[in-house]
Amino acid sequence: MAQILAPSTQWQMKLTKNTTTACPITPKMWNSLVMNPKRRVAKSTKFRVYAVKSDNGTVNRMEDLLNLDVSPYTDKIIAEYIWIGGTGIDVRSKSRTISKPVEHPSELPKWNYDGSSTGQAPGEDSEVILYPQAIFKDPFRGGKNILVICDAYTPAGEPIPTNKRYKAAQVFSNEKVANEVPWYGIEQEYTLLQTDVKWPLGWPVGGYPGPQGPYYCAAGADKSFGRDISDAHYKACLYAGINISGTNGEVMPGQWEYQVGPSVGIEAGDHIWCSRYILERITEQAGVVLSLDPKPIEGDWNGAGCHTNYSTKSMREEGGFEVIKKAILNLSLRHMDHIRAYGEGNERRLTGKHETADINTFSWGVANRGCSIRVGRDTEAQGKGYLEDRRPSSNMDPYVVTALLAETTLLWEPTLEAEALAAQKVAMKM
Hints:
Number of domains: 3
CATH class of the largest domain: Alpha Beta
CATH topology of the largest domain: Creatine Kinase, Chain A, domain 2
CATH architecture of the largest domain: 2-Layer Sandwich
Distance between the termini: 56 Å
Number of strands: 13
Order of helices and strands: HHHEEEEEHHEHEEHEEHHHEEHEHH
Number of helices: 13
Shape: globular
Largest sheet: 8 strands, mixed
CATH superfamily of the largest domain: Glutamine synthetase/guanido kinase, catalytic domain
């Protein structure tokens, strides 16, 4: 139900016209209810919605119940257990009452779900076990209620195939990786679609807006579509404790981006998955469809990526640019291994056009957004910093991408012959 702050004159006239009994709440009364600074308001970050008589004379109090503060009456909290479904992209969740507030996932019980209903287990042996791994504040229920990021295991304790967090945790717990304190800054792009037609928000149904150019970071009703969703998501992530660092409108109209980081190690994946869940919930409430398709609209339109900025302790210290170039060399040798792990449908996006590199060719450059790997001007000038992997698609699994970057640049050692050949190619591109 939409939250009403100050109804427009048109809305008030509609109420009067369509109801058998005129709505008793006049514009003056609305001003008194909503704007009167002397009126006592409950201590809550949420707007109060005042009940309006419906056509049948009943009073809808659903919003009051949703905003109900139960903390004076019980120590119990609600934990929303969240996990990744069978597609490897979808997020699922269910709620559980916990006897008291918790501060660490180890205080939470394991739980289970029906894996046969998510494509993750056969019907004759469908139980999948959830292990709580990370906790965030719940921006929807408020109070001490929490969102819980979980990974999934068989009853025997084996990680199921879609549990990519398990391997990532092994990589990040490796002493060599941990000592390098890997930082990640992830740029999550997404597209908002109209519910019934699955066509981008703000686009004419069955038609197209004007060409790209006016929409990137733009303002205006004819250029920016879905800003309220982006802003609501931004604040909800800050409330939850997600390390969101910014947001902006993207090149294709109806497409947005937000950035999470810098995050260290496994935390990057936890924060991205929780931010995606929050975005799914917000678009659900707004009646808009969230798409992470890397090329939602074919033709002369930008795709959607998940550019991943990466650095290690050695890259951030003096002489780090040489370490970055060695990392790029390793990445060039494992290019197709990374492409296979960087998201479904990415071949439709990585065409060499629309600020992408060709999917089959590895390239790198300074300030070049048409390369596989981009190095910033400031990194080159300072001789230290980070690299940006522009290959991951918008639907990539952040556990897979972050762990693979650390593995390739810190743990994997190429043969001397391959390293020499790659070094020649890297030198030619400089």
